[in-house]
Amino acid sequence: MKIDNAENRSEKPPKGKKSFVIRIDESTYKLIEKWSNDEFRSVNGQIEYILHQSLIEAGRKKKE
């Protein structure tokens, strides 16, 4: 499992994206990692996808 250390990050997030730290338990991370691999996404991309879909389902964001 990769750990994202602030001292190892020198690049800035893409324009329009906000960077922040998230702490989740290891079993949840492993499940998201497996899911992301199944869908050919990075773990970060999968978390963005999950959040995006959840916002749409909750009526907080319009479907694009």
Task: Give the topology.
Elements: H1 26-38, H2 43-57
What does this entry look like structurally?
This protein is mainly α. It has a domain at 25-64. The protein is built from two helices and no strands. α1 (26-38) crosses α2. The protein is globular and about 30 Å long. The N and C termini lie far apart (33 Å). The mean pLDDT is 88.
What's the story with the biggest beta sheet? none
Indicate the overall shape.
Answer: globular
**Low-pLDDT windows of residues:** none
How many E-type strands? 0
The quaternary structure here is single chain
| Strand residues, percent | under 5%
Mean pLDDT: 88
Helix content: 40-55%
- Output the helix-strand order: HH
Structural class category? mainly alpha
Q: How big is the Rg? A: 13 Å
Distance from N terminus to C terminus (CA atoms, Å) equals 33 Å
The DSSP helix count reads 2
Key features of this structure:
mainly alpha; Ribbon_hlx_hlx; 2 helices; Arc family DNA binding domain-containing protein; 64 residues
